[in-house]
Design a protein that fits this description.
The chain is mostly helical. It contains three helices and no strands. Helices cover 62% and strands 0% of the residues. The longest helix is centred in the middle third of the chain and has 60 residues.
Length: 159
């Protein structure tokens, strides 16, 4: 028996999901197509159960609103199950986004940061002498105003 794992056909593996964003998108879309009819069916069933319970008469001895509270308490777990299925798709989408940010974009960001740090270290080693030319300013210098009342303002004469 060899230690080599045989690739499983038709089964998603971590290696397949790590191949790129397109594979993860396909995986999530397949799960969405699988779960969408199930979610729709369960949502419809929850509405029917809720309507069925609402049509039932009050029980003898019920306080005001007790029948509606009992119905809500009964149907709520089923509705939570539907919500959990919908949330499952949100979690898969979040997983894909976090995987992309953590394992595809982060190494590039860190490499850029390291290159910037090395550039800063080179500049410090050269006593900060930059060989970058500053752009020449084409703005007109401010004109001195003869009036002492507004001399603190930097006003240019136009014309």
């Amino acid at each position: 028996m060899s230690n080599d794992k045989q690739p499983r056909q038709g089964v998603w593996t971590p290696d397949l999901l790590a191949e790129g964003p397109e594979k993860r998108r396909v995986f999530i879309e397949q799960r969405r197509q699988y779960l969408a009819p199930l979610i729709a069916e369960m949502r419809q069933l929850a509405r029917e159960i809720d309507a069925d319970i609402a049509e039932r008469p009050k029980l003898y001895g019920d306080l005001p609103f007790q029948a509606s509270w009992r119905a809500r308490r009964t149907v709520k777990p089923f509705e939570q199950a539907v919500g959990s299925l919908e949330e499952c798709l949100d979690f898969l989408t979040t997983y894909a986004a976090r995987y992309k940010a953590s394992y595809e974009e982060l190494p590039d960001q860190r490499a850029e940061k390291q290159a910037h740090k090395e550039r800063v270290a080179e500049l410090r080693a050269g006593n900060g002498n930059q060989e970058i030319e500053a752009p020449q300013s084409e703005a007109e210098p401010p004109v001195a105003d003869a009036s002492p009342l507004f001399s603190h303002l930097n006003i240019r004469k136009i014309g």
